[in-house]
């Protein structure tokens, strides 16, 4: 396959932490041109200077914005259009999790999760469709979750938003594969990042704690390596993690057994 990412123009969201940060480093090493996004500009600037070292002084573009704001998204899309017309590869990785039972979760939390984890990704990918179709090629990868394949306790709104991604991106792939559009859905299991620390609780405040499952999970660089291989191979959907990945197959093959187990699973 050679070096798939050499010279590719990649816009990566969620680059300021965890999985996205690890992907940014690997992409820089492999010669990609990068626009890195997240809300925290200073964190992105620190990462940019690390990436310069990894990438023989190639300069990444820092584009800080809030995925939860329609106006911010419009501006960010315009910046990327001015810079590149369209990215060769859009990696929609930014996201926000949840740790609260349905009974204790405010409606605004559901709305926030849907905006950041689902609608923002629809908005950003739709923005370049015409360009990709005109060019006859384009590629988008989106970070869903195993929770995009089955719901678990404490993650009702997060699971709903991640499930919605599968509906949208499976449809996009089906509609546009003939125009050369490639779509990969990444489904991480437990990965050692800040995801649980940043997760929303029922009143919208952050949990502020590292879950045991994440603490013991796969490292972000290892995840990034597997995810980037899957994107380069144009895999439609991949499950990456530890034994929690088996849940996908158990739900498919033995749904009633799966239903009994998931209610008792230690997911917090
Ligand atoms: N770690 C896991 O176990 C796991 C499992 C399944 C799925 N995932 C998914 O993996 C992706 C990456 O998460 P992670 O594990 O690396 O967690 P993380 O360390 O919390 O990183 C989340 C990233 O998303 C960005 N982000 C969050 N809200 C944002 C907003 N409103 N606007 C712009 N950027 C925003 C953050 O940037 P700022 O803070 O700078 O805004 C950060 O770069 C997410 O989509 C997550 O749902 C993770």
Describe this structure as you would to a colleague.
Strand 1 (9-12), helix 1 (18-29) and strand 2 form a beta-alpha-beta unit. The protein has 11 helices and 9 strands. It is 48% helix and 15% strand. The longest helix is centred in the middle third of the chain and has 21 residues, at 156-176. It has a single domain, classed as 3-Layer(aba) Sandwich (Rossmann fold). Strands 3-2-1-4-5-6-9 form a 7-stranded parallel sheet, with helices on both faces. It is an alpha/beta fold. Helix 1 (18-29) packs parallel to helix 2 (41-54) and helix 4 packs parallel to helix 6. 42% of the residues are buried. The protein is globular, with a radius of gyration of 18 Å. It binds NADP nicotinamide-adenine-dinucleotide phosphate.
Ligands bound, unique: NADP nicotinamide-adenine-dinucleotide phosphate
CATH superfamily: NAD(P)-binding Rossmann-like Domain
Gyration radius, to the nearest Å?
Answer: 18 Å
- Tell me the CATH architecture: 3-Layer(aba) Sandwich
The structure class reads alpha/beta
Mean pLDDT, to the nearest integer, reads 97
CATH class category: Alpha Beta
């Amino acid at each position: 396959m050679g070096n798939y990412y050499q010279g590719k123009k990649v816009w990566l969201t969620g680059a300021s932490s965890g999985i996205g940060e690890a992907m940014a480093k690997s992409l820089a090493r492999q010669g990609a041109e990068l626009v890195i996004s997240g809300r925290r500009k200073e964190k992105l600037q620190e990462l940019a200077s690390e990436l310069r070292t990894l990438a023989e002084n190639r300069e990444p573009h820092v584009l800080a914005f809030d995925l939860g704001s329609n106006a911010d998204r419009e501006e960010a899309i315009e910046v990327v259009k001015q810079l590149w017309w369209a990215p060769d590869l859009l990696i929609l990785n930014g996201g926000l999790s949840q740790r609260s039972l349905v009974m204790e979760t405010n409606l605004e939390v559901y709305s926030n999760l849907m905006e950041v984890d689902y609608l923002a990704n629809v908005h950003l990918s739709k923005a370049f469709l015409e360009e990709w179709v005109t060019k006859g090629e384009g590629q988008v990868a989106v970070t869903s979750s195993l929770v995009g394949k089955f719901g678990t306790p404490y993650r009702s709104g997060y699971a709903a938003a991640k499930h919605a991604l599968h509906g949208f991106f499976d449809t996009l792939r089906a509609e546009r594969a003939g125009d050369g559009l490639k779509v990969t859905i990444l489904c991480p299991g437990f990965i050692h990042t800040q995801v649980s620390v940043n997760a929303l609780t029922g009143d919208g405040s952050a949990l502020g704690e590292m879950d045991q499952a994440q603490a013991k999970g796969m490292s972000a660089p290892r995840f990034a390596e597997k995810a980037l291989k899957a994107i380069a191979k144009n895999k439609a959907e991949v499950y990456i993690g530890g034994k929690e990945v088996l849940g996908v197959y158990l739900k498919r093959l033995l749904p009633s057994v799966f239903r009994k187990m998931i209610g008792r699973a230690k997911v917090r």
